[in-house]
Each structure stands twice: as structure tokens, then as C-alpha cells.
Amino acid sequence: MAHRHHHRPEGPCHFSLMSLAASRRLLLALVPLAGLWLAVSWAAGWWG
User: Which residues cross the membrane (predicted)?
Assistant: First the structure.
């Protein structure tokens, strides 16, 4: 049972598009966390 590799012209483009979407999703998940961390640290520094 050998694996057949299909090399299509849209292969690398599709891969970069998927990685871009994944990094965008990661960024969108990371931004609120960074904002919350900044707000908490600012509040701790302001009230402390």
C-alpha cells in the first residue's frame, strides 16, 4: 500500500492560506488575553 502524492499547483498556496488563517485565529484569540493581562496589570499598578 503506497501513498500517492498529488502535487497540485494550488498546494503551497492552499497551505500558506491555511497557516495564515490559523495564525489569524491564534492572534484573534491572543489579543483579548493580552488586553485583559494589560488591564489587570495596569489596575494592579494603579491600585497598588
Answer: 26-47
What separation in angstroms does the CA of 41 have from each of 28, 32, 36, 44, 45? 21, 14, 8, 5, 6
Q: pLDDT, tens digit, for every residue of 8-35?
A: 555 556 667 788 899 999 999 999 999 9
Q: Is the pTM of this model over 0.85?
A: no
Angle at 3 between CA 19 and CA 15, to 5 degrees: 10
What are the φ/ψ torsions at residue 8 (nearest 5 degrees)? -100, 155
**Cell numbers given for 35:** 488586553
Single-letter code of the amino acid located at 1: M
